[in-house]
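Aim 2, interim progress: modelling of the pyridoxine-5'-phosphate-bound target.
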Amino acid sequence: MKKSSLRLGVNIDHVATLRNARGGAHPCPVAAAQLAADAGADGITAHLREDRRHIRDDDMRRLKAEVNLPLNFEMAATEEMLTLALEIKPNACCLVPESREERTTEGGLDVAGQETYLREFCAKLKAAGIHTSLFIDPDTAQVEAAARTGADIVELHTGTYAHHTDAVELVKLQNAAKLAHGLGLEVHAGHGLTFDNVGAVAAIPELVELNIGHFIIGEAVFAGLDIAILEMRRAMIEARA
Ligand code: PXP
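Predicted structure of the complex, ligand included:
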């Protein structure tokens, strides 16, 4: 199939991590999102965790109100988050598994194990005009279950590939992307992507969006956020060439 262009969503959670380390207002994740927009990001992703360890409710409200880019609201599929999403009305909600003990989102959502619940949850978001995305491992059963929930998008968890750059894991991502696309889902990917490992993922033709956070924010310390974003974009474009 012909490769379409690949959007870059920048996850600004860890700007908030740094802010919260000192309890003040600096550095501001909303200002970072504005800078990302100026540097050519296609969207902003932020994860409002149950424990509010980085992004807070008011950050989400301000990201929607003040930044002129589609907002991808990452959240657990809970009633509390549903209420906030329906108030804030982001462009999309990406449903992720969440546990308080984890350092970051460690695996994909078990869609197959809670298909009915997620179908009803997605329906409520979709009724409010919010696109729905499910963050899943590149696994056939999960992709097929995601398609049955009526979600618009699957975001494939690239963490295992990113940490091991293993050929078997890459094939799983390629096959899951092909299957999801064939089932009518829009296909995104993210987690653990860096300049070194983004190429093989970006080359998967069915992917239309990558969401990248920790590496870009870390790299921004050395190069500046705008340069980090431009370099990531360059690596993605090169991989698609
Ligand atoms: N996509 C999802 C669904 C995530 O949970 C995360 C991590 O918050 C990312 C993308 C970005 O991952 P990273 O920060 O490792 O680039």
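The chain is about 50% helix and 15% strand. Residues 11, 13, 47, 74, 94, 96, 104-105, 135, 155, 190-193, 211-215 surround pyridoxine-5'-phosphate (CB under 6 Å).
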